[in-house]
Amino acid sequence: MSEDIETVGEDGVIMHDDGTVEVVLAHPVTVTMIPRGGESQTSTIESLTLRRVTGADLRQVGKLEGAAMTLALAARLSGQTDRVIDRLDGADILRLGKVIGDFLSASRPTGPM
Fold first, then answer.
1. Residue 102 DSSP SS3
2. CA–CA dist 24, 45 (Å, integer)
3. 47-56, 61-70, 98-107: the lowest-pLDDT one
4. Taken in order 67, 82, 12, 54, is the CA torsion positive or negative?
5. What is the pTM assigned to this prediction?
6. Which residues are CB-contacts of 89 (< 8 A; sequence separation ≥ 6)?
7. 8 Å CB contact between 45 and 33
8. Are 104 and 53 in contact (CB under 8 A)?
9. How many helices (H) and strands (E) does the chain have?
10. What is the pLDDT of residues 33-52, one digit of tens each?
């Protein structure tokens, strides 16, 4: 978690000054990785930080719809593997989907403020 926190929402969503959004998971995920020739490593993922959506992201998931698009974008924007995303609780996936939707619909204000 970075020090540049802008806004912390009641829903566990943290907006950072750099445009990324951190979603604190209501149901953290524990995963065990076994690197080739190495010992297993277990870690608990308590939050996912999503970067903003780019044209390349949309091109990659362009033919997907609904939940499949949300899951694919969650993986791309967080840098997590499908294995991690597949283990997320449904409530956390819905919150990630809302953040992704906000990225796609948010625009900068125009005109004098």
1. helix
2. 9
3. 98-107
4. negative
5. 0.81
6. 25, 26, 27
7. no
8. yes
9. 4, 4
10. 888 888 899 999 999 999 99
